[in-house]
Design brief:
Layout: E1 7-11, E2 14-18, H1 24-34, H2 39-54, E3 58-64, E4 70-71, H3 81-90, E5 94-98, E6 101-110, E7 113-121, H4 126-131, H5 135-170, E8 174-179, E9 184-187, H6 189-195, H7 206-209, H8 212-228, E10 234-239, E11 245-256, E12 262-271, H9 273-316, H10 320-351, E13 359-361, H11 363-370, E14 381-387, E15 394-396, H12 398-414, E16 420-429, E17 432-438, H13 473-483, E18 487-493, E19 497-505, H14 512-523
Parallel strand pairs: 14-16
Antiparallel strand pairs: 1-2, 3-4, 3-7, 5-6, 6-7, 8-9, 8-12, 10-11, 11-12, 13-15, 16-17, 17-19, 18-19
Length: about 525
């Protein structure tokens, strides 16, 4: 008896295949495709079943990529573009010559989307295949398309879920999502660590999983959110099983779906322990700065009186020994006053209360006016000034820039104990004034260079042990230069010397932010 042709029976929006006995191999293949979610396995089952049904020599499946081109499969079986377009657009099987043989091409389609093509190498059987009823193969190809697309969607969903989990686990805050019934739907690793719960907390009510303090905070936040539509985070202290206490900021937000309808809440917990400690250290640092400033002010008044009376006694003294003693007192008073002034300056810098009085000034005049100061004079050193002619005026706080130059030149003298040349060079470099102060001193060892601008830091070597100083001068230099919108850097070779470089912008008006700083300083 001739084989009974397969028939389609409509069942809703799907077609149910009633296969002939000859097509039972295809039916088994379809059943096995339904049981797997692996795209490679689906392709293997479909091509093997199609080859067995048609006794084709080879078979391959090519899937359309995002650009619409077929990819995968045996390149030797890839049809001409016109054949691919026909199979994709028309969905009907066709048998065509290919290279030295023949191929049969079937489209793999979903109702609104072409997925790929199934290609069979039917060389030597082209006439037999042309006479065959290929509708079972067409259904096989469409079922394979459906299974492949489902498997890809499942794989993409799994990948996206894994990516979301990795993102949540990478966030430093603890994150827990709750459904409308208060059950935990997702929890990241930081939440498990902070709340001391395991991953099996998913599916449990948060009241059972959270510590009592966090539970109360979440309850209150949920009530506030329902009552007024928004919440502020709450601070709670959580005691862990090891006896440690951590300070936690708890906040919630409404979790909504694509239609913006509420479907649960997101609970975020931030460990504030480190922030609390940092705040405590900041307050201690502020108290230290205020203490230093107050003590410095209190010390400055009696020292000023001591210096004044010492100078008066020096004028009246007749004996050389008395004068010698008074000179020591006077010099040490100067050192103490210089230290107090440095402490006051650093205190103002750290508290942000440094005041800049900017006005046009000649950079050459800044250097000229400090050359008579004792700090920049030395019998063993030659101070060389190398200034380009016609340097433009800059907006400077002249007194503070004098302080910068005094610090840099006096440092060059102090750290060149054997004497030598201290060269001060002023020149224009593009839109900046460049100031170089170069000495021929001991230099700065490489391991000390990163900390050279830190407060109270001094290079401790056999070369510098006898050099007096507080480690505040370069801190003040850096702050003053940066408040002028400039920068300071240095290069140093041990045993050869150091060059400090200051770059100051050449500008004609005071920037708004500087005016704002000045007004703020004046208000204080």
């Amino acid at each position: 008896m001739p084989a009974e042709p397969p028939a389609r029976q409509d069942s809703g929006s799907y077609s149910v295949l009633r296969l002939s006995p000859e097509a039972r191999g295809l039916q088994e293949a379809v059943s096995r495709m339904f049981a797997t979610r692996d795209v490679g396995e689906i392709i293997r089952l479909a091509t093997e079943a199609a080859s067995a049904h048609t006794r084709a020599r080879r078979s391959a499946i090519f899937l359309f990529g995002p650009d619409g081109r077929p990819a995968g499969g045996d390149p030797a079986l890839l049809p001409e573009p016109t054949v691919v377009d026909y199979a994709r657009d028309e969905g009907k099987p066709l048998t065509v010559p290919h290279l030295d043989g023949w191929i049969t091409v079937l489209g793999m389609r979903l109702p609104r989307e072409p997925v790929g093509i199934l290609v069979l190498d039917v060389t030597g059987r082209a006439e037999d295949v042309a006479r065959m009823n290929l509708e079972p193969l067409t259904i096989l190809a469409d079922q394979a398309a459906l299974m492949i697309r489902n498997a890809q969607l499942v794989s993409r969903t799994v990948d996206e879920s894994n990516l979301l989990s990795n993102i949540l686990d990478s966030i430093t805050n603890a994150i827990v999502t709750l459904d409308a019934e208060g059950l935990i739907t997702r929890i990241n690793r930081n939440a498990m660590a902070m709340l001391e719960v395991e991953s099996d907390a998913v599916g449990r009510p948060y009241r059972e999983a959270f510590p009592a303090e966090v539970t109360r905070a979440v309850d209150e936040l949920l009530q506030e959110s329902e009552r007024q539509g928004y919440t502020m985070e709450k601070m709670v202290t959580v005691r862990l099983q090891q006896g440690l206490e951590i300070h936690v900021a708890v906040s919630i937000s409404i979790l909504r779906d694509e239609s913006f309808a509420p479907r649960g809440t997101i609970t975020v917990l931030r460990d504030m322990t480190a922030s609390r400690e940092l705040e405590r250290f900041r307050k201690l640092d502020q108290l230290k700065s205020e203490f230093v400033a107050n003590v410095s002010h209190e010390l400055k008044t009696p020292l000023t009186s001591i210096k004044a009376y010492t100078e008066a006694l020096l004028d009246m003294a007749r004996e050389e020994q008395t004068k010698s003693f008074l000179k020591v007192i006077d010099e040490e008073s100067d050192r103490l006053l210089a230290l107090i002034n440095d402490l006051l300056n650093v205190s103002r810098i750290q508290s942000g209360r440094i005041k800049m009085n900017l006005s046009p000034a000649s950079p050459r005049s800044v250097v000229d006016e400090i050359m008579g100061i004792s700090k920049v004079q030395s019998e063993r050193h030659q101070i060389v000034l190398d200034a380009e002619p016609d340097l433009p005026e800059l907006l400077l706080d002249k007194e503070k820039m004098k302080e910068v130059m005094v610090n840099l030149i006096s440092n060059a003298i102090k750290y060149s104990p054997k004497g030598g040349e201290v060269r001060v060079r002023l020149r224009r470099e593009e839109a900046n004034l460049r100031i170089d102060v170069r000495d021929q001193g001991v230099g700065i060892p490489r391991e000390h260079q990163p900390k050279i601008f830190e407060a109270f830091y001094r290079v401790d070597t056999s070369y510098t042990a006898e050099i007096p100083g507080t480690g505040l001068g370069l801190v003040i230099v850096k702050a003053i230069v940066e408040h002028h919108g400039g920068s300071v850097s240095f290069e140093s070779d041990v045993g050869k010397g150091t060059t400090f470089t200051v770059l100051l912008p050449i500008r004609g008006e005071i920037p708004r932010e500087e005016r704002a700083k000045d007004m703020g300083s004046m208000a204080q």
